[in-house]
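so my prof wants the structure for this chain in the tokens format not the other one, which i didnt know existed until like an hour ago. anyway here's the sequence
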Amino acid sequence: MVITSIHVESLRGIRSGALEGLSPLSVLVGVNGCGKSTILDGLLLGAGSAPGDAVGRVVARRVELRGGGRWLFWRGGRTEDPGARIRVESDTARPREVTLRLMTDVSEANEEKLIKQRAKPPYVEIESVLVSGDSKLTALTALDYESLYVFRQDGPRELKEVASVRLVDPRPGGTHAMLSRSYTDAVEDGRLPDVERLVAEVVPGLTHIHNLSDEAGAGVVHLAFSDHSVPVAIAGDGIQTLVQVCFALAQIPGSTVLLEEPEATQHPRSIGQSARAIVAAVRRGVQVILSTHSLELIDALRTELADDLSRLTVHHLACSGGAMSVIRYTGSEVAIARDAIGEDLR
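here's what i got, hopefully its the right format
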């Protein structure tokens, strides 16, 4: 499955906007505040199988924001109709539409869960309704003041059995799965060899990746070499980012990976290695949609895909008064448009 378009209304800073013509490798560029992160949020909310969990994840990843549930909506939900709408289309599945509604009254079941977790009031609840064809799924996500969340959802099985959509934010302070959890998931799904091959492209001399226990019994992911191993966490921020990205990219064909600024903390040479890992995943049939502020990353992606630029598109976003506009470049046009794109990246 390849996601081909997304339309959003009243989501964060986007009052209305759309991206059309998304490709197997879609790159989002533009100045800060143009809507790149919001589009990634919208894709997770609209294309994933668990909108209730997705609501909590996209709110919680703004770690510096308190009372963040309200700010999932245009102008903090302080409008006559505090709701948002997302429509996602793909090349194989039915269109999916998610409607979000902000509520100050929290359902009893979710409130009890928050209280048991000693959550900090005030609480808010967001209802998400996912519709695809004749099928409908409803979820309720309750959040506390510090964006701790709980959710429950009900719906038909066919809406839950969709291709995986995963959002990874490797920037310092960004939210992502613990490496030990990612390691376990990769082992259980039989994907660890794929991860190791990708990371070996990034870390010379790597023989394998393993999960060891520390003194307290907690899992710690190590990079193993012929004569020693080191925890990923002390291998440097750039290497840690690369490993997180590689775990995310080792998905089954037909999945979609959303990457928020994968170049974060990376040395220019490592950016080229990341580009190789990204393109390798795309060639395996994994769709990658990423945001970036790096011309070096765009150049590296073009180089890696030089024999098949039809897989690449660059979407140049701008936003004024909540109205998002987009200029789309095909892979073969990116080199010509490089100067125009670079004005917003320098």
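also thought this was worth mentioning. Residues 198 and 266 are 16 Å apart (CA to CA).
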